[in-house]
Design brief:
Elements: H1 6-30, E1 40-44, H2 47-52, E2 75-79, H3 94-126
Antiparallel strand pairs: 1-2
Organism: Aquibacillus albus
Subunit structure: The basal body constitutes a major portion of the flagellar organelle and consists of a number of rings mounted on a central rod.
Protein name: Flagellar basal body rod protein FlgB
Length: about 130
């Protein structure tokens, strides 16, 4: 049994995701003029397995099937190698990256606000409601 429950654990994983996404977007922006650089994205590896938790087990009948294992990080970084936007082989769309960065910053800040609220609630309980 967890002392804080699943909420803080889920917020922690969400903050990890937002941080990784921020780093990835920043790398894309930094390499916007690098020849042959391919933009990277953070994607969920197995959202279904994460949502269903321990109650779901899948039998892999083929090596290419996605494994549903606990303890794995549900997101990963992938490169988009199918497109080219610039004459130098680069596929970073700076406007799209800036939009995603702003959206991710709002998401990250909302997570920080939520986790601060949880800790403030715990602090109030520890102080006896004062």
């Amino acid at each position: 049994m967890s002392f804080f429950g699943k909420t803080i654990h889920n917020l922690e994983h969400s903050l990890d995701y937002a941080s990784l996404k921020n780093q990835t977007i920043s790398n894309n922006i930094a390499n916007a003029d690098t020849p042959n650089y391919k933009a990277k994205r953070v994607v969920f590896k197995s959202v279904l397995a994460n949502e269903l938790g321990n109650t779901f087990e899948a039998k892999r009948t083929h090596p290419k099937h996605i494994p549903f294992q606990n303890g794995i990080v549900p997101f990963q970084i992938v490169s988009d190698n199918n497109t080219t936007y610039n004459h130098n082989g680069n596929n970073v769309d700076i406007d799209k990256e800036m939009t995603e960065l702003a959206e991710n910053q709002i998401y990250y800040q909302s997570l920080v606000d939520r986790i601060n609220g949880k800790f403030n609630s715990l602090q109030t309980v520890i102080k006896g409601g004062r």
